[in-house]
């Protein structure tokens, strides 16, 4: 019986985006059905809260300190381990369709030239292995790349230029005239990176990714084992879904998110209890993530702008769900659906107004760290009882999970065992803690964080940098404080908990991270 793996990812999607996770705006019936049939994880955590490090962890099963992609713009080494390569070497047909982002998106082929890669066909890139054999890049014998716009050499951009060149100017321009991340506002409220996009829906990248995925899957044989990573660029900013879809969610009708603090005085008070980079960014004086527009000041964000951004995100979420439904319908029509393991997740979250912020950065709170994750095992292969798993798990477990689905031993390079199928199974598989890392150097500003999620606790240590001396951090009990407004780091009554979590974290972080110890200072 063939073993087939459909790995679906979105980009920058919050846990509460989905109906199955309590979302009550976007309609997500396709993913909700996967959750009903499979295992829904209520606390899935990334190894990093930006794209390239997190996606590199998905592929390698390694923490950031091991695979080395410590911030966006740092490419994953071309010879890094890859679960897709393991599957390909074991006879799997392999494809990655959509957003990859293991290399900087404006120059995704630079590494290929530098490493003497041979291009064999427009959609396959091979490299010469040490024994002289040609192997597909990162193990994917079929590659069709897309990102959030029509820029660069990616397949989607090329398709737009060749078929609908007028469409490129319809999308939000990601870079401004200084080639920095664009801060320009649009829509009805002037919210940053919002635009009413006149592009027809069928030209938009969400439908393009689904079209290409359906085409590749339809070409596979009935007896093929395959691993297909379908990677949607949305709901990541820019928030510019086709205007024809704006009727789906009217921003004026939306409630503000629970994490929005309406009183600006109270908002600043909460931010001031956190390490200094929080309030610095809020006032626009300390920008430490490239994807946050350097010229945009979060303190200027209005309640209506938050509503409009959220409306755009919900629209994008619905379009992605409908695209997933098309792929699943195709698998059902082929008679394959019961033989497919489907795994759905995202790489990191988005503020969407929480704490008065948008976008992301060195902020290890649920807005960015609590992710949707669903595993629907193939019914024909295994009789797993549908379940909800509340134990914290990490995306670092995905590579081992794919190996397990394929009946392969856990790769020696991976740093976490497969996902548990129940809370009862989690301890035996070592799911006691999840570790998240952050390092950034931007505009001369250095920020480094290390975080452990264990049980209901989240503890973040700052390392020495531009505004930190290594003695500050964050500590939250998610049961008592789900919005993470009460930082217990300096609370003497919680010092024992904090120190225990820190000791646990430093003992278990890869060696490349652990020497940069953050906190042995008094409260």
Main attributes?
523 residues; alpha/beta; Alkaline Phosphatase, subunit A; 9-stranded mixed sheet; 4-stranded antiparallel sheet; 18 strands; disordered C terminus
Rg result: 22 Å
Number of strands: 18
CATH fold title: Alkaline Phosphatase, subunit A
CATH class: Alpha Beta
Strand content: 15-25%
What's the total helix number?
13
Share in helix? 25-40%
CATH-level-2 architecture:
3-Layer(aba) Sandwich
**Largest β sheet strand count, sense and barrel closure:** 9 strands, mixed
| Unreliable residue stretches | 107-121, 514-523
Outline, from the CA principal axes?
A: globular
Mean pLDDT: 92
Describe the protein.
The protein has 523 residues and is α/β, with parallel strands linked by helices. The chain has one domain (4-179, 194-261, 300-430): Alkaline Phosphatase, subunit A, CATH 3.40.720.10. The chain is 25% helix and 18% strand. It contains 13 helices and 18 strands. It has helices spanning 29-37, 51-60, 64-67, 83-89, 110-114, 155-163, 205-218, 264-272, 276-282, 303-334, 366-369, 398-405, 495-508; strands spanning 4-11, 39-45, 93-98, 118-119, 125-128, 134-136, 142-145, 185-186, 191-192, 226-235, 340-346, 371-376, 387-389, 393-394, 434-442, 445-454, 457-462, 473-477. The strands form 4 sheets. Strands 1, 2, 3, 7, 10, 11, 12, 13 and 14 form a 9-stranded mixed sheet that branches. It has a 4-stranded antiparallel sheet with strand order 15-16-17-18, covered by helices on one side. It has a 3-stranded antiparallel sheet with strand order 4-5-6, with no helix packed on it. The longest helix has 32 residues, at 303-334. Residues 107-121 and 514-523 have low confidence and may be disordered.
């Amino acid at each position: 019986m063939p073993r087939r793996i459909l790995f679906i990812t979105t980009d920058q999607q919050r846990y509460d985006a989905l109906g199955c996770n309590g979302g009550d705006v976007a309609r997500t019936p396709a993913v909700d059905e996967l959750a009903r049939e499979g295992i829904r994880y209520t606390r899935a955590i990334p190894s990093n809260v930006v794209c390239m490090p997190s996606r590199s962890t998905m592929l390698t099963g390694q923490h950031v300190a091991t695979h080395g992609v410590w911030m966006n713009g740092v490419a994953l080494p071309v010879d890094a381990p890859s679960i897709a390569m393991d599957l390909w070497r074991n006879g799997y047909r392999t494809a990655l369709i959509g957003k990859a982002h293991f290399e900087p998106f404006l120059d995704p082929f630079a590494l290929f030239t530098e490493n003497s890669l041979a291009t064999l066909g427009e959609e396959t890139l091979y490299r010469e292995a040490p024994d002289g054999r040609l192997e597909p890049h990162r193990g994917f014998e079929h590659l069709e790349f897309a990102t959030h716009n029509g820029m660069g050499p990616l397949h989607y951009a090329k398709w737009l230029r060749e078929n609908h060149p007028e469409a490129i100017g319809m999308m939000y321009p990601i870079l401004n005239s200084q080639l920095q991340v664009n801060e320009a506002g649009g829509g009805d409220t002037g919210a940053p990176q919002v635009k009413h996009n006149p592009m027809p829906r069928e030209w938009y990248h969400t439908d393009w990714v689904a079209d290409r995925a359906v085409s590749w899957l339809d070409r596979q044989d009935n007896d093929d084992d395959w691993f297909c990573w379908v990677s949607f660029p949305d709901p990541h900013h820019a928030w510019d879904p086709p205007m024809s879809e704006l009727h789906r969610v009217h921003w004026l009708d939306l409630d503000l998110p629970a994490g929005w603090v309406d009183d600006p005085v109270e908002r600043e008070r909460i931010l001031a209890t956190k390490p200094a980079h929080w309030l610095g960014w809020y006032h626009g004086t300390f920008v430490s993530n490239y994807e946050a527009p350097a010229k945009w000041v979060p303190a200027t964000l209005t309640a209506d702008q938050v509503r409009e951004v959220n409306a755009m995100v919900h629209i994008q979420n619905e379009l992605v769900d409908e695209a997933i439904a098309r792929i699943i319908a195709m698998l059902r029509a082929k008679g394959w659906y019961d033989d497919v393991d489907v795994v759905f997740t995202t790489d990191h979250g988005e503020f969407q107004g929480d704490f008065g912020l948008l976008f992301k950065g060195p902020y290890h709170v649920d807005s960015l760290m609590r992710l949707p994750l669903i595993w629907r095992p193939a019914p024909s292969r295994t009789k797993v009882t549908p379940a909800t798993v509340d134990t914290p798990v990490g995306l670092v477990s995905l590579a081992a999970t794919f190996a397990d689905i394929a009946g392969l031993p856990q790769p020696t390079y991976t740093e976490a065992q497969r996902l548990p199928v129940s809370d009862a199974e989690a301890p035996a598989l070592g799911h006691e803690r999840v570790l998240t890392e952050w390092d950034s150097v931007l505009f001369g500003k250095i920020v480094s964080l290390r975080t452990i999620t264990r049980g209901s606790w989240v503890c973040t240590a700052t390392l020495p940098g531009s505004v930190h001396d290594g003695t500050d951090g964050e500590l939250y009990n998610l049961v008592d404080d789900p919005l993470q407004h009460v930082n217990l780091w300096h609370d003497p009554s919680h010092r024992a908990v904090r120190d225990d979590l820190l000791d646990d974290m430093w003992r278990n972080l890869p060696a490349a991270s652990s020497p940069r110890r953050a906190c042995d200072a008094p409260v």
